[in-house]
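Quick question, first post here. What does this chain look like in 3D?
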Amino acid sequence: MDAIVIRGLRKSFRKDQPPAVCLQGETVIRKGELFGIIGPDGAGKTTLFRMLATLLDPDEGSATLEGLDVVRDYRKIRTILGYMPGKFSLYSDLSVKENLEFFASVFGKDIDSNYDLIENIYCRLRPFEKRKAGKLSGGMKQKLALCCSLIHSPSILFLDEPTTGVDPSSRRELWENLAQLKAAGMTVVVSTAYMDEADRCDRVAMMKSGRFLTVDSPGNIMKRFGKRLLAVRSDNMFSLLKDLRSLDAVEKCYTFGDTHHVTLKDGTEADAAMIASELESVYGHKGVKVYDVPATLEDCYMNLEEE
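> Answer (accepted):
Ran it through. Tokens below.
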């Protein structure tokens, strides 16, 4: 049995606005998979999570978690699901330990019976277990929220943008913890706006404007890029972006870190040297550097976004 099956889910909040989620066809998330939903703010990730977590009813379509329908079987689903929302939603005036005890009691559990599942995470919280949750740092709040999501031993775990606003060390620790949960057989679904985190997933769904642009492994998505990709710099990066977009050979140009990434049109004979020469001779740019680069997942997203 697949862990999650999504069929044509659709959700709108206003009749005069496009739907927040409008998925076509069927998407399957396998048991024991670490699955990422990747996209910017407003892509529809949180609305999709809330429907799958039985917090919102879809307008159209259906979804099942381990064979249970998200509308008909919502009570049963909540016993097998761990859900960590993007916004910190624990009780700020309760201590670390009191929060954990409360969430365990909601499911008729106690901390000791499932402690092995959270031990690697909670060991970092133990010195602060009497501290109010609202007084914790961002990274510590993240760890506590994850512990509370796991304390009833769910078979499926949803994490909605868990690394937003968290320091790099805590981000790394979180992904290490998720890899351990996956290795133990748990199905983990993570949404994020950080493309670099997608490499840690078995498969990803790239999402924009409520729909999936593609669903595949990160490696396969990058293999299918199929465009000549250049990185370009000059002393005037602001005007460089405009000038690159006016070149006949350029299909698309966007800022990427401290460079601009350029995809060339199919069939063009232009290369890095020709682009550099034109920028210098025609547009007067100084300090020009143009070189070929391999596509990242962010490049793939930018390419898919326009299709």
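The chain has a mean pLDDT of 93.
The longest helix spans residues 168-183.
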